Amino acid sequence: MHRQYAAQPVLSPRYYLDNFLSIIDVVSTRYGDLLTQTEQRWLFTFSSLPLDAKLLTVRLLSRKGCWFRRDKLHYEEIDDIDSAIHDLAKHGVITVTRTPPFVIAADLMTKPELLEHFSAHSLKASAKKSELVATILGLLTEDDNIPPLNTDCLCMSHDVLPIFLLLYFGNSRQDLSQFVLSDLGIYRFESVPLLYADRLFNSRDQVEDWLFLSTLNDDYWQYSEKKDIHSALALINSLPKKPSWPPLAQKWDRLANRLARDAERTGDFSTATFLFTQSGLPPARERLARMAIKQEDCHSASQAVASMLEHPINEDEKDVADRLARQLAKKVSPLSLPFHIQPLATRQYAIETLSLTLEGRVERLAANEFESQGWKVWFCENAVLNALFGLVFWDIIFAPIKGAFLNPFQRSPRDMYSPEFANQRKTLIDERITDFTNGSYSVLDIYDEKEGIANEWVHWGMVDRSLVEAACSTLACDQIIACLNRMLFDTKSNRSGHPDLFMVKDGCCQFVEIKGPGDKLQPHQIRWLNFLNAHDITSKVLYIEPST
């Protein structure tokens, strides 16, 4: 089936100003009382600027950094850039100079410009730019005046964009590009009534703490990408006390877990234990147990495992706890442990082996083999069951629950991956399951109505109508409901681990997980295979071996 798409919309030349105005309108309305006097003055000043100055302001805010060269600014939609610069400087939005600090000037200049500008210092033309900068810094004294640049340098006086974006989106991930993707029709979002009185932040301290943790998190990932574990661990000294506000506490937990894991890898169990003990997110308790086992502290390990078994946060943690419990039972008497050892789950899925010439992905090779046997096959991994979840619960996912939606560019509610999602919508979910059971709710009708609209559960690029139709016609209603309930129980963990292939033939369906040479089943995949077979949904594992 070939989908027909409309011609791509053309953006207005001043689209970015319209988008920015939308942001500051929401921020002023929803969070005016949390803005500083400086931010309020900035908004007042911005509102009084001429059009060209407003356009240039948003252009500069959207670019990386705070310093810009005049000769690099070229915007066709701005009639008079020099006049706009004059207006911005007059109102204190920017400062203009030709003698910025050397480090700033060096960053703005190219290597050839550096060589020419500081030709009196006999610099090596073969040196890298970073080496040239270091050499010049070593030659300059405090009394040296840097020759003026050949172009004006503009500096934004206040970088207000991060705070405005955070208040508008309610997170530190989304930015102005989100508007562009929507304006171009690349993404279409469900229309959800936004309650302007319903806001995420209720104090300026919450905002500042969020921005600070976001900066720490960004620094961590930069060091991590460079494999600079020493600098990453140094961030622990800047990590604030764990906040009491739940949204910020979760953000703190995620960063603390990463730092603690790095500390554990370096053998600093004391620091790792200090951080993991405070974290409320997996794998904190698992790591505490594993460190205790390494140190032969079976008592502490058993306490951590007992806590996981008694109150597991999700299925992954329960599974890990069962494995650690069996590991501890081999080290000490099972009778001395504060929990009962659960027997290994009985395997409920078949295992088959197939020899093939390994050319390309093993999943695609296996799909071709099944197609030769008359099966209609989709290589869809997690897509089919997730799509059923997203389609069956579509309007419930996008229900205007208090605090669930803060901006018009959300693919799911903010509580999608917490137990609160199902708890807060229990009545709606129960009613939907009843309607689905008695046939008064059509998944295919919802597919036709919502196709292409962003939903975190429906991967439109992998899910066509024929796949949904095949699943609905071969899976019994109670089987689908069982799968949906399992995903509702743990939306984060159970949206993955589904078998690779879904196929139908003669009114029957089956799932098949494909494993190539050296590939092993993961615990969450085993859980899904056992679950599907327990509900009479044929699911098996096919190991692909290279043919000799």
TrEMBL record:
UniProt GO molecular function: endonuclease activity; metal ion binding; nucleic acid binding; phosphodiesterase I activity
E.C. code: 3.1.4.1
Keywords: Endonuclease, Hydrolase, Magnesium, Manganese, Metal-binding, Nuclease
Residue span, VRR-NUC domain: 438-546
Cell wall biogenesis/degradation listed as a keyword: no
Entry annotated with the keyword Hydrolase: yes
GO biological process, one term: interstrand cross-link repair
Entries under InterPro entries matching the protein: Fan1-like, FAN1-like_WH, FAN1_SAP_bact, tRNA_endonuc-like_dom_sf, VRR_NUC
Superkingdom, taxonomy of origin: Bacteria
Pfam families, alphabetized: FAN1_HTH, FANC_SAP, VRR_NUC
Enzyme class: hydrolase
SMART domains according to UniProt: VRR_NUC
PANTHER family recorded: FANCONI-ASSOCIATED NUCLEASE 1 (PTHR15749)
Family in the record: Belongs to the FAN1 family.
Stated name of the protein: phosphodiesterase I
